[in-house]
Design brief:
By secondary structure, this protein is mainly beta. It has a 5-stranded mixed beta sheet. Strand 4 and strand 5 form a beta hairpin. It starts with a strand and ends in a 20-residue tail after the last strand.
Length: 198
């Protein structure tokens, strides 16, 4: 019968692993003398995410918060109770709308999400169209690629891969209708809740 022992590194960042978590017995069926097997895993580190005191858990003052742009993404399909499916996100300005949507797990391509059905942000396919309901002033002007792909579309439709949202110090609210060409319902901006802090 052999014993498997794991140990942590000896640096000041590492703490010993509790013995109740690492003690495992391994049964061997050899006829030789039992041996102790020791394995050492290098650099096991733990990071605490809970605040240590109530003082550090206090809310940051609004003027000390980093500048963020609030987003409300409205899905093209209604919820079962016939209300708009709204996803609220926050992001720093100066990024492409496509990157913000993909980083926030917001559906962008719909049926074109598979590889080879979209250009991956090059502005050549036109499958990342969105309708900007509010916050058009935070977006960059239309590019030549957008003008080409959106000739017959309303002026508030944009290609998410070409639209840059503000500057790094921008603040504001952008309301985006996802997949506007697949939209199966009409809704009013006033009907949706756009408070990202909730």
């Amino acid at each position: 019968m052999g014993t498997l022992q794991l140990s942590s590194c000896g640096s000041s960042f590492c703490s010993p692993i509790p013995s109740n978590l690492i003690s495992h017995n391994i049964t061997t069926t050899s006829h030789s003398t039992p041996k102790s097997l020791t394995l050492s895993r290098g650099k096991i580190r733990a990071v605490s995410t809970a605040p240590k005191s109530s003082e550090s858990a206090q809310a940051i003052e609004p003027e000390q918060q980093p500048p963020l742009v609030d987003f409300a993404f409205v899905n093209s399909v209604l919820l079962p109770d016939q209300t708009p499916d709204v996803h609220l996100r926050q992001a720093c300005g100066g990024q492409k709308l496509r990157n913000i949507m993909l980083d926030g797990n917001i559906e962008l391509y719909g049926p074109y999400a598979r590889p080879l059905l979209n250009c991956g942000g090059g502005g050549t396919c036109g499958t990342c169209m969105v309708e900007v309901i509010k916050g058009k002033e935070l977006l960059s002007p239309r590019t030549d690629k957008e003008k080409k792909h959106l000739q017959k579309k309303p002026k508030n439709w944009r290609l998410a891969c070409q639209a840059t949202v503000g500057k790094p110090d921008s603040r504001g609210l952008v309301v985006v209708q996802q997949l506007p060409e697949w939209k199966a319902h009409e809704w009013k901006y006033e009907d949706i809740l756009v408070n990202p802090s909730q």
